[in-house]
Amino acid sequence: MPNLDLPILVVDDAKFSSTVIGKTLTRAGYRDVRFANNAMSALAMIEERAVSVLVADWLMPEIDGLEMAARVRQIDEQTNHFTYIILLTAKEGVEALSEAFDRGVDDFIYKSDMNKQLLPRIFAADRISDMQNSAILASQLLLENNKELESKNIVDLETGLGNQQYAIRRINESLRQSDSRGGATSYLLIGIRNWHQLKTQYSPAIMEEIAVGVSRRLRHLIRPLDAACRISENQFAVVTHFNSLDHCTTSCFRRVHDGISLKAFKTTAGFISVQAGTSVCAADNQEPMPTAQQLEKAVHRKLHYAYDTGGIFVTRWLEIADEIVNQS
């Protein structure tokens, strides 16, 4: 059964042809039929309100049917819509029709046989445009759903560790615990300094093996209640809570740093070593508590010192608070 509310636009500079088409469509029951006598007017009407089927004369002054079809496709791309384009033509032959299809035309009707061909072609256009626009809508909904899921995702899909969003959540939880019950929150950031150099040497598959290897080793190196995260392509983090700020020392984090930087990772390309630098910032409730974002900025700010030495750089929040707060 045809969709009688199908939006149709008829474009023809010959008033007689438009009248014939209009009467045929009206008698068939179509209620949403608009008319334009030139391509520019038709394009303005399409931009104002999309149509599902466009019936246009191939030969028109200024802009012909082929050029109009190309412009309609541009509008379709911009608006994420599909318009089924039918050209009215007196031309025959494979070359002419092949050109029309190459330019984005979906169908054609010979003017000499328009009375017989028009309605069957409109019925077919209705089905195809409905399927195409339904598919476009479903795809758009899927993209929007994926974006929403990504915004809520807390897992790095490549390694299975928590991502940056998860790291911020765990820092906030630990800071609240430090503020209310005492103890210290530390945020440890491990940067792989030679990551981009390795990317020039190895394939993405090998780089993924390295990332997975780092994540697995990191899980084994930390305590059960610590949170391991991958916050960027070449940066891994650990959120920890200690009974006292005095426990947040270089020696305390040595095992984690050395476990990543001193032992190569086995991959299908052989054993590969990474060059790591570790920056740590810790805070307790004896000083003004930072936000999670401020603690994160603090460790990033000092990471280059860790890169320079290839070792561990530990900072207490109180030592860097003014620098971070003043630049926030």
In short:
This protein has 328 residues and is of the alpha/beta class. Helices cover 52% and strands 20% of the residues.
Topology:
Blueprint: E1 8-11, H1 15-27, E2 33-36, H2 39-48, E3 53-57, H3 65-79, E4 84-89, H4 94-102, E5 107-110, H5 114-152, H6 164-181, E6 184-192, H7 195-201, H8 204-221, E7 227-232, E8 235-242, H9 250-261, E9 265-267, E10 270-272, E11 276-284, H10 292-309, E12 312-316, H11 317-326
Parallel strand pairs: 1-2, 1-3, 3-4, 4-5, 11-12
Antiparallel strand pairs: 6-8, 6-11, 7-8, 9-10
Helix pairs in contact: 2-3, 6-10, 8-9, 10-11
What descriptive keywords fit this protein?
single chain, 328 residues, alpha/beta, Rossmann fold, five-stranded parallel beta sheet, five-stranded mixed beta sheet, 52% helix, 20% strand
Structure description:
α1 (15-27) links the parallel β1 (8-11) and β2 (33-36). The two termini are 63 Å apart. By secondary structure, the protein is α/β, with parallel strands linked by helices. It is built from eleven helices and twelve strands. The mean pLDDT is 90. α6 (164-181) packs across α10. The protein has a five-stranded parallel β-sheet with strand order 2-1-3-4-5, with helices on both faces. It folds into two domains: 8-150, Rossmann fold; 164-326, 2-Layer Sandwich (Alpha-Beta Plaits), CATH 3.30.70. The protein has helices at residues 15-27, 39-48, 65-79, 94-102, 114-152, 164-181, 195-201, 204-221, 250-261, 292-309, 317-326; strands spanning 8-11, 33-36, 53-57, 84-89, 107-110, 184-192, 227-232, 235-242, 265-267, 270-272, 276-284, 312-316.
